[in-house]
Design goal:
Elements lengths: L24 H29 L12 E2 L7 H21 L2 H20 L4 H6 L18 H6 L15 H4 L3 H12 L5 H27 L1 H12 L4 H4 L3 H22 L2 H15 L9 H11 L5 H18 L3 H14 L7 H16 L1 H22 L8 H21 L7 H4 L1 H4 L14 H18 E2 L3
Antiparallel strand pairs: 1-2
Length: 468
């Protein structure tokens, strides 16, 4: 097999089988069971709460969904993709040349997302999703003069003044809407093109995560995680929502900084910074991606990429500010708009833990088991990384620190109270970085865990109508 590696002293040494949580399979099964129990309790309590007063603003909590058992055109394809990955994914991930593995993982993720979306049919599952009354495509004609639209953007966030933006436009910085305006300008207008764009970019995040894990924790662990990333349960919400696109952009920002830190690439550092700046103008919650980015610098023990990263990142807010949109002025208005709508009704007392149940469905029971291993090994990994005289973290410790950073970002979003419900969709940029923890699971049980992952996605997509 042709070798595509290169020697790099800044890259942690690879290790054999992941030793985190050596207690065996039983604790993993217990962790998965706790995750399943959390989902069951959230469903039961949520159903009763919603039936009593409607405060949860969700018909099938903890998901924003309604009960609707069904099959559709994508059902045979989804079952085929799931069966193929479970049967052949681990072996192919171990054997394929690296670049071919990246392309295969991306293509598999695309097939998985498209097949799940097509369970609802082409129109309902893809073409219509981004054209509903809450979505970005409803305001394309109001951006004929982009500078003027940006200067007046904040005037239409709060409900009250004439012409307030639809919910998703008001709830995000204008970078999200501008993406679809530019697609329309180059002849790719309409819901179908918008949906395909989000799916392709969202699926590309799989390759980005693999590149980052390889750079920071070695190729062996990246290969172990590959089938789980390609068969991610949150693919249900990647197709089709703009948050899949946001997740892809954020993932490439993190991957490029990992490359910059381990290979001393100025170009990668600048590209990472530029994408991070753009990420912050796609969603108000995504500056939290700074936590995984900062963790990369901790893992690699370098500050070399910081200056080019920051220089490139600042060009985005500078461009928006000079054009007339101020992020820091818009955010308080977004908070006001949030509490004018469902955010002001939904009780924090339920959603602060109900969100975590939704997240469990989105990342799957295998990830829940893998996070147990991550948390069990966190103290030693963190102490080693923070000790100034210790060498760079081992491969496993590097992976644990990266996953932990994403988990902390997710928990910060949860505790903020600005993510009450819909987190199965909104938190996709964080979910991408929890799934690599599956590399810590024993090799022997990978097919079983992959089957559990696929089962969660297939059940959700066939039993409820998610609306996204």
């Amino acid at each position: 097999m042709k070798t595509e590696e290169r020697s790099d002293s800044s890259r942690p040494a690879e290790e054999p089988a992941a030793p985190a949580g050596r207690a065996g399979h039983r604790p993993d099964l217990v962790a998965a069971g706790v995750g399943a129990l959390l989902v069951a309790v959230a469903c039961g309590v949520g159903w009763a709460w919603q039936r009593s007063n409607g405060e949860l603003q969700a018909q099938w909590p903890p998901l924003l969904a309604s009960w609707n058992p069904h099959v559709g055109p994508g059902t045979p394809a989804a079952l085929t993709v799931a069966a193929a990955v479970v049967a052949y994914g681990p072996a192919l991930a171990d054997r394929l040349p690296w670049r071919r593995l990246l392309l295969t993982a991306w293509a598999t993720a695309l097939a998985w997302i498209f097949s799940l979306a097509l369970i609802e049919g082409w129109y309902r599952g893809i073409a219509r999703r981004l054209t509903t009354k809450h979505e970005y495509l409803r305001v394309i004609d109001r951006f004929d003069d982009i500078p003027a639209a940006l200067r007046g953007f904040t005037d239409h966030i709060v409900v009250g003044p004439p012409g307030n933006w639809p919910a998703h436009v008001a709830g995000h910085p204008p970078g999200a809407t501008l993406t679809f305006v530019w697609l329309d300008r180059i002849g790719l207008g309409g819901g179908a093109w918008a949906g395909v764009f989000c799916i392709v970019l969202g699926a590309s995040g799989v390759a980005a995560v693999l590149i980052a894990v390889r750079a920071l924790a070695g190729e062996r662990l990246a290969r172990r995680a590959a089938p789980f990333l390609a068969l991610a349960p949150f693919a249900v919400w990647t197709g089709t929502s703009a948050d899949g696109y946001f997740a892809g952009v954020a993932a490439w920002s993190i991957a490029l900084l990992a490359v910059a830190a381990t290979r001393r690439s100025l170009l990668a550092a600048c590209a990472s910074g530029l994408l991070f700046g753009w990420t912050c103008y796609l969603s108000y919650g995504l500056p939290l991606i700074a936590l995984p980015l900062a963790t990369i610098l901790l893992i690699t023990r370098t500050t070399r990429p910081v200056l080019p990263f920051l220089t490139a990142a600042l060009t985005v807010p500078l461009a928006f500010t000079l054009t007339g949109f101020a992020w820091w002025e818009a955010y308080p208005l977004l908070v006001e708009r949030y509490y004018q709508g469902a955010g002001g009704v939904r009780p924090y007392a339920y959603w602060v833990w109900g969100n975590l149940a939704a997240a469990t469905l989105a990342v799957g029971l295998a990830t829940a088991a893998a996070l147990r291993r991550t948390l069990a090994a966190t103290p030693s990994a963190a102490l080693g990384a923070l000790h100034p005289r210790r060498p760079a973290p081992t491969a496993e410790a590097a992976l644990i620190l990266l996953v932990l950073a994403a988990l902390l970002a997710l928990l910060a979003a949860d505790l903020s109270g600005m993510s009450k419900a819909e987190t199965e969709r909104i938190w996709q940029p964080f979910y991408f970085w929890l799934l690599p923890a599956t590399a810590l699971l024993p090799v022997k049980g990978r097919r079983g865990w992959l089957g559990a992952q696929a089962g969660v996605a297939l059940l959700v997509n066939h039993l409820v109508w998610t609306g996204w």
